[in-house]
Amino acid sequence: MLEKLELEAFLTLAEELHFGRTAKRLHVTTGRISQIIRRLERRVGGPLFERNSRKVTLTALGKQLRDDLRPAYDQIAAGLAQAIATTRGVRIKGVVRVGFTAPWCGNLVVKAADLFRARHPDSVVEIEEIQLVDPLGRMRANEVDLQLTEFPIDEPDIVQGPLMFAEPRGLLVPVDHPFAGMEAVSLEDLGDATLVTIASEHVPEYWMDHYFPRRTPSGRPITQGPATQFWPEVLVHVSMGVGVSTVALRAKDFHSRPGLSFVPLRDAPPIDYGFLWPRTGLSPVASAYLDIVHELATPVR
Questions:
Q1: Which residues form the HTH lysR-type domain (predicted)?
Q2: What's the CA gap between 58 and 14, in Å, rounded?
Q3: 245 in a structural domain
Q4: Are residues 151 and 290 in the same domain?
Q5: Residues 163 and 273: beta-carbon distance below 8 Å
Q6: In whole angstroms, what separates CA 23 from the centre of its chain?
Q7: What is the domain count for the chain?
Q8: Distances from the Cα of 189 to the Cαs of 171, 179, 214, 275, 286, in angstroms?
Q9: To which H or E segment does residue 33 belong?
Q10: 94-100 and 146-150 strand pairing
Q11: What is the tens place of the pLDDT at every residue in 71-107?
Q12: What is the residue range of 161's domain?
């Protein structure tokens, strides 16, 4: 287990990339920070920082450790602040702006907002839908504090929080498509279909590969169909027989309509959902809201 000062020294130095500023923030000497980091590097078995006379940078191992530790540390710090505020009779006050990408995410976000408002009547929850065509734009513009969305998200300025829940993956196909009569299809079957996708200019490439693959597991090319801007366009293209689309099977409860059929993808991993927030950290009001979401979410098994 890391000691508190080890954890704070590492995460602060990973943020500041300067031993002097790190020491000043933690109210210790620069030599003490150097000693702590050297000891930590011996424990993990490799260098966490590259140092020279001009700059300090994180190694690949250091980046991995930072990304693994930061979300948990932020939640612990925010939870402690909330506990202290509660015992002192301080009421949470402020605005938390929450985004979501899928209707089932929106249901959880709204349910948590109702409970949050009841517990913290001095606070405000603002909720908005995030379009997958630009999944990170609103957060990077500082327009949302939290976002419930599809994983994976691996970005240097954004924290991917713990997994909240997962949904089985399926394929959305026209009702007269050969796949529509099957009990399930496989990822290999996508080689025999045209895949309706989304415009990817603002979408990470690794995310597109995860949800809209260009090749089957055996290496067969998957024909890429229209790149859409909004979900209703996907529904129209598929219902008109233009192509098929990968989808969470739960979408059937929200988007069933004539001309469409939902078929399970038997060998595809589920779609994981969780919260994102800026790497700069969570405000007390955002942390308090996130605590309520954790209360309401169905545990992942």
A1: 1-59
A2: 7
A3: yes
A4: yes
A5: yes
A6: 32
A7: 3
A8: 11, 9, 12, 32, 43
A9: helix 30-44
A10: parallel
A11: 877 777 666 666 655 554 555 678 999 999 999 999 9
A12: 91-166+272-296
Nearest-10 Cα torsion for 218, 219, 223, 227:
100
What is the signed CA dihedral for 233, 234, 236, 242, rounded to 10 degrees? Answer: 120
User: What pLDDT, on the 0 to 100 scale, is given for residue 300?
Assistant: 46
Residue with tokens 């200019």: 201
Q: What is the DSSP letter of 117?
A: H
Neighbours of 137 (CB within 10 A): 13
Average pLDDT over residues 95-122: 93
| Element (DSSP H or E) covering residue 128 | strand 123-129
- Each residue's pLDDT tens digit, 172-213: 999 999 999 899 999 999 999 999 999 989 999 999 999 999
Residues 185, 138: one domain? no
